[in-house]
Design a protein that fits this description.
The chain folds into 2 domains: 6-94 and 209-262, Rossmann fold (3-Layer(aba) Sandwich), CATH 3.40.50.1860; 96-207, 3-Layer(aba) Sandwich (Rossmann fold), CATH 3.40.50. Helix content is 46%, strand content 16%. Helix 1 (16-25) packs across helix 10, helix 2 (47-62) crosses helix 3 (74-87) and helix 8 (159-173) crosses helix 9. The protein has 11 helices and 10 strands. The protein binds D-glutamic acid. D-glutamic acid binds at residues 10-12, 14, 40-43, 73-75, 116-117, 120, 148, 184-186.
Length: 267
């Protein structure tokens, strides 16, 4: 039993899809969330820059006394997970491996598509993990950079998003995949549009759900889950003005965010 908080960071708001799942599944756990809203997006930056930002975010959360670190951002998980693991003695969980494992389980025709930011797809991280598990699987990666701003603008069910989805996703649909990994924090909010465009025969893998399964297993394995009967604390930190984070974040999270503190990082 350990009542220290779980630390979660993302390049901005998107990691709230993972946090929402933590709230649903691990209701007694306290959390500290850091959204690096001043430096988002990470998905178009070089690996070197993303690694540097990720170290600074990690340092901030470790200083908050966390017991486990969750890297909710696919881009950071793709380029910086191993480097962060090397620096810390606590468990560090990224979103790539859980999503990749679920995709391997789901595919029947051995053809898997992965969509994400340019940095995530260019890193080849999903393909690497999937093919380490089963070298016979074919993986088709596709960057979908317009999805992030569309989600942040709240256009999750808009016809513009349907048009963009049709244009992008044709490229993976034509490969005959039967499984598609939503390899970006924002994409679970587009599940309904992506599902319609891909059709019923394609299984969508939500990395957020798979990641929280792994967090739960890790806490149980280490006997580090919190069973305390008090209200868990839920802290939010951002690196830019909290206003936009609050309005867009409440939509992501499906609930009110009471307090958000702005901090300076890496200056
Ligand atoms: N959080 C990022 C990811 O999951 C998307 C937003 C960004 O590019 O920073 O890849």
């Amino acid at each position: 039993m350990n009542s220290d908080p779980i630390g979660v960071f993302d390049s901005g708001i998107g990691g709230l899809t993972v946090l929402k799942e933590i709230f649903r599944v691990l209701q007694q756990e306290s959390t500290v969330y850091l959204g690096d809203t001043a430096r988002v997006p990470y998905g178009i930056r070089s690996a070197e820059t993303v690694v540097r930002y990720s170290f600074e975010n990690t340092e901030f959360l470790v200083a908050k006394g966390i017991k486990l670190l969750v890297i909710a951002c696919n881009t950071v998980s793709a380029v910086s997970l191993d480097a962060i693991k090397e620096r810390l003695s606590m468990p560090v969980i990224g979103v790539i491996e859980p999503g990749a494992r679920a995709a391997v389980k789901a595919t029947k025709n051995n053809r898997i598509g992965v969509i994400g930011t340019e940095a995530t797809i260019n890193s080849g991280a999903y393909a690497r993990v999937i093919q380490q598990i089963d070298g016979a699987l074919d993986v088709f990666g596709l960057p979908c950079p317009l999805f992030v701003p569309l989600v942040e603008e709240g256009l999750t069910d808009d016809e513009i998003t349907v048009m963009v989805a049709k244009k992008y996703l044709r490229q993976v649909r034509d490969k005959g995949i039967d499984t598609l990994v939503l390899g970006c924090t924002h994409y679970p909010l587009l599940k309904s549009v992506i599902g319609k465009v891909m059709g019923d025969t394609v299984t969508l893998i939500d990395s957020a759900i798979e990641t929280v399964k792994e967090i739960r297993e890790t806490l149980l394995r280490d006997s580090a889950e919190c069973n305390a009967l008090r209200e868990p604390s839920r802290l939010f930190y951002v690196t830019d003005s909290p206003d936009r984070f609050k309005s867009v974040g409440e939509r992501f999270l499906g609930q009110k965010i009471k307090t958000i503190e702005k901090i300076d990082i890496g200056l």
